[in-house]
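Query structure, 733 tokens:
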């Protein structure tokens, strides 16, 4: 038996040694990137969907029952007057007769971009420019498809298709760093997650828009250098400078107001909203009634959400629904308001978990649709005729999601059959849906199901990726739970080398994000620090590391009490829980407690610094990438949501400052930042490193020229990952 065991072990060692290795080139270039089906656009016929081909040359129509191609709607090689080699996106007109074709896209911030749009007539197979006046932003069709509104240079323009595509200007006061019409300012876009702030009325006679007056918002600037990839030649002699409005915690935000423009009379009106000057307006949307513009309002503390209906002509506004929370209202409340002719469906955490609620169009609560100690992640559709609601939730396991339906009597049916992460896109008729499933060991599998959950066809199974992975000695991925010294149960994943030997002592690299409401410990393929199936962790495993991630207090998926326990004091409990994780790992026989590292990006970088200076010298090394270091330096909407203003909560800001903790830093540290980070400014790095200098703490630093918060482009990603690996090799091996 002993000889047999030795032979088995030797065979396994030989198999591992013959397996293909993963390189940092593989990780940075996406060699093992999974396929997915993206850009699915359900069409109004209820039986089909459209999709842009991978090469960007065609818009193709597919069956929502079989997933098979029905026809090609647009082709750059055959469309008349088309000069583009490929396209970036498209928008169908409501009547399905025309398509706005998006080309030459240039990003601005996280969600915003300019592009050159063309109007494509499907019947005539012909393209023509939407406008000759320069690139456009966020164009939309009117409900009858005869008009298109868009933004250029902070002003709204209108094109009338029935009048020879005549173009007129709706607003005239738009100006960079002063007035924005119909598009959000930087902080709204970043923290409320949208890029268009205007809409057509149901009858197409009015345009409503939000005006952002950011003249009193302080300006932030940073230098731009020549660089190499891309090369900004205008900065070859002297550095350039980028200036924009960035409100930090406690300072002035943009003053926002809602206006309507009567297309026929050309009269502009300002809506009478009974709100104070500090309030936020994160969304507006016309309902099915042309006399009811939905205006969504948050107070500055973000603990009260009000839904108003404003009459676009009389300007009178009436509150329809109010939701309050002891800490703060999450984004789901205002980003998931769904209007129907006679009803409204909204999300709320009022019972401690995120659930769906049904209201009349007059604002009266009909019922709570979902109930229980779980979170609804997405509202997917409502079949009013049958009284059936479709949604995605994490019922039963906060690390997994599934697709459900519930009927008018509250009878619930599980539609997705596999345990892991499931997401769904339903057809307009709600008869079928496209389900994307994955778990930690299974790359995405995309199927078409009927509305009872029956699989009708498989669209994608990532067979090619699985074949690639079969030639690699992939590490093992496991989920675990443990209790802290305070009795709090935390969820985590651990990735061990393929040739793991429990009798050895391994160094550990902990990765975490830890930000409010975030979740890194999810049973899905794209776990890991790069959300790529853990390929960076697989690389580390091949080099003898165990990788671990734990979601501490303040993270999502487990209800309000767990998530909002960090309110007014972010960074304190999160860092305690990472220290508790390191202590737990140290207790395991196969882990070397003297060789534990930690790293993270953005909030994860911040919590790396907080954890290494928590007071327990348990981390031998850490890497903080693009880290906030003091919340007084960060933007108003995000920071005040969790901390209120510095004036109201100075004690919390002082305690949550990584800079104030600098004297207690323990372990070797590498700081990484991009010089053009418009989100977490380089200032955070500069002030923190100065605090380390003055407290006589040695550290390493890596700065990336002209890189923003994502720190990518050219060879940058490989260089950054190599820097991190080399740093941990030097300090943990």
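Result returned for the query:
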């Amino acid at each position: 038996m002993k000889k047999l065991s030795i032979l088995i072990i030797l065979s396994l060692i030989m198999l591992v040694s013959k397996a293909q290795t993963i390189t940092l080139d593989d990780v940075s270039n996406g060699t093992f990137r999974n396929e997915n089906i993206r850009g699915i656009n359900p069409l109004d016929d209820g039986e089909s969907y459209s999709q842009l081909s991978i090469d960007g040359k065609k818009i193709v129509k597919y069956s929502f029952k079989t997933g098979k191609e029905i026809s090609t709607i647009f082709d750059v090689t055959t469309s008349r007057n088309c000069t583009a080699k490929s396209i970036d996106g498209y928008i169908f007109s409501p009547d399905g007769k025309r398509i706005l074709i998006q080309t030459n896209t240039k990003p601005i911030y996280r969600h915003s971009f300019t592009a050159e749009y063309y109007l494509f007539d499907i019947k005539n197979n012909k393209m023509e420019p939407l406008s000759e006046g320069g690139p456009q932003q966020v164009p939309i069709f009117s409900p009858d498809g005869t008009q298109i509104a868009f933004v250029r240079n902070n002003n709204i323009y209108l094109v009338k298709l029935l009048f020879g595509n005549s173009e007129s200007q709706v607003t005239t006061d738009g100006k960079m760093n002063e007035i924005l019409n119909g598009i959000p300012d930087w902080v709204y876009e970043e923290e409320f997650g949208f890029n268009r702030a205007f809409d057509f009325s149901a009858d197409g006679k009015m345009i409503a828009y939000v005006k952002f007056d950011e003249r009193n918002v302080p300006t932030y600037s940073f230098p731009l250098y020549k660089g190499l990839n891309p090369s900004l030649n205008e900065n070859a002699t002297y550095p350039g400078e980028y200036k924009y409005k960035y409100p930090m915690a406690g300072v002035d935000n943009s003053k926002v107001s809602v206006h309507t423009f009567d297309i026929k009379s050309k009269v502009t009106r300002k809506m009478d909203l009974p709100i104070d000057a500090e309030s936020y307006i994160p969304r507006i949307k016309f309902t099915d009634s042309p006399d009811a513009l939905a205006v969504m309002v948050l107070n500055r503390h973000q603990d009260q959400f009000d839904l108003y209906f404003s009459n676009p002509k009389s300007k009178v506004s009436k509150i329809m629904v109010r939701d309050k929370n002891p800490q703060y209202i999450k984004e789901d409340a205002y980003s998931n308001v769904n209007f129907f002719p006679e009803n409204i469906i909204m999300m709320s955490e009022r019972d401690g978990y995120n659930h769906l609620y049904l209201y009349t169009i007059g604002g009266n609560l009909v019922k709570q649709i979902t109930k229980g100690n779980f979170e609804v992640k997405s509202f997917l559709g409502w079949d009013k005729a049958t009284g059936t609601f479709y949604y995605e939730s994490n019922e039963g396991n906060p690390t997994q999601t599934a697709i459900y339906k519930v009927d008018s009597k509250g009878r619930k049916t599980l539609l997705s059959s596999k345990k892991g992460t499931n997401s769904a896109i339903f057809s307009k008729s709600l008869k079928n849906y496209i389900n994307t499933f994955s778990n930690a060991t299974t790359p995405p599998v995309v199927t078409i199901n009927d509305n009872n959950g029956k699989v009708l066809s498989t669209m994608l199974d990532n067979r090619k990726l699985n074949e690639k992975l079969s030639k690699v000695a992939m590490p093992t991925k496991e989920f675990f739970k443990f209790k802290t010294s305070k009795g709090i149960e935390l969820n985590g994943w651990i990735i061990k080398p393929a040739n793991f030997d429990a009798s050895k002592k391994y160094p550990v690299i902990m990765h975490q994000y830890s930000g409010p409401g975030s979740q890194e410990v999810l049973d899905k393929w794209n776990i890991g620090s790069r959300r790529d199936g853990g390929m960076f962790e697989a690389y580390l495993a091949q080099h003898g590391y165990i990788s671990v991630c734990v979601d501490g207090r303040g993270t999502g998926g487990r209800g309000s009490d767990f998530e909002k326990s960090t309110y007014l004091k972010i960074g304190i409990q999160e860092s305690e829980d990472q220290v508790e994780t390191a202590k737990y790992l140290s207790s395991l026989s196969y882990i070397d407690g003297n060789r534990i590292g930690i790293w993270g990006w953005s909030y994860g970088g911040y919590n790396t610094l907080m954890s290494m200076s928590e007071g327990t010298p348990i981390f031998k090394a850490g890497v903080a990438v693009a880290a906030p270091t003091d919340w007084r330096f960060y933007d108003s909407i995000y920071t005040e949501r969790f901390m209120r203003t510095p004036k109201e909560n100075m004690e919390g800001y002082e305690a949550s400052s990584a800079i104030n903790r600098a004297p207690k830093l323990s372990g070797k540290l590498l700081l990484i930042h991009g010089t053009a980070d418009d989100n977490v400014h380089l200032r955070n790095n500069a002030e923190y490193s100065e605090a380390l200098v003055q407290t006589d703490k040695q550290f390493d630093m890596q700065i990336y020229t002209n890189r923003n918060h994502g720190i990518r482009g050219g060879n940058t990603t490989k260089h950054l990952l190599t820097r991190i690996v080399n740093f941990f090799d030097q300090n943990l091996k």
